[in-house]
């Protein structure tokens, strides 16, 4: 089964305040049933009234963390997609608050891969964060954050590892 066939027909909510990002994601996810929202209010209404297989949430401009909380309440896995909020602190916050993945917009061309990982992990009852770490390995963050990453690296990785383990234990308890 190819990644595209796994995504075929899936209901995906894409939330971003930039129309060009909504257009690009709609095109990349043409095999899916894509619903878009450009405001917090519109996305909140959709999350509360419709069923989605995955939500792709921008952080800034649409109150992405508030939307993540709503998605979690409705058992909708969420991928956080960001440009300006791509920082170690936001990576940790996203994981702790239940995001299935945290992806910089520069990786938008690989969105199918990240969504596929989420769907596969969900079907297996596993954390999608394991596959996410493989797609965005430590070297990616070192290159992206430079010296700031090196200074925060150990603490960040320990915090991230703890958050992933905590989420995995919580998922197992729910089963």
TrEMBL record:
CDD domains: REC. It holds the Pfam family Response_reg. Keywords: Phosphoprotein. InterPro entries: Bact_response_regulator (IPR050595), CheY-like_superfamily (IPR011006), Sig_transdc_resp-reg_receiver (IPR001789). PROSITE patterns: RESPONSE_REGULATORY (PS50110). The modification 4-aspartylphosphate is found at residue 58. GO terms for biological process: phosphorelay signal transduction system. The keyword Phosphoprotein applies. PANTHER family: RESPONSE REGULATORY DOMAIN-CONTAINING PROTEIN (PTHR44591:SF3), STRESS RESPONSE REGULATOR PROTEIN 1 (PTHR44591). This is Regulator. It comes from Uncultured Desulfatiglans sp.
């Amino acid at each position: 089964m190819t990644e595209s066939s796994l995504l075929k027909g899936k209901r995906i909510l894409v939330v971003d305040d930039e129309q060009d990002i909504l257009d690009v994601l709609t095109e990349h996810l043409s095999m899916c049933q894509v619903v878009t929202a450009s405001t917090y209010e519109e996305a909140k209404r959709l999350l509360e009234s419709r069923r989605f297989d995955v939500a792709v949430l921008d952080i800034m401009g649409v109150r992405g963390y508030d939307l993540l909380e709503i998605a979690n309440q409705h058992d909708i896995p969420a991928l956080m997609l960001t440009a300006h909020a791509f920082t170690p602190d936001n990576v940790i916050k996203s994981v702790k608050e239940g995001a299935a993945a945290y992806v910089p917009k520069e990786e938008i061309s690989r969105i199918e891969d990240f969504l596929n990982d989420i769907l596969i992990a969900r079907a297996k009852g596993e954390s999608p964060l394991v596959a996410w770490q493989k797609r965005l390995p430590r070297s990616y963050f070192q290159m992206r954050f430079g010296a700031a990453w090196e200074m925060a690296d150990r603490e960040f990785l320990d915090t991230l590892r703890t958050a992933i383990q905590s989420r995995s234990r919580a998922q197992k308890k729910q089963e």
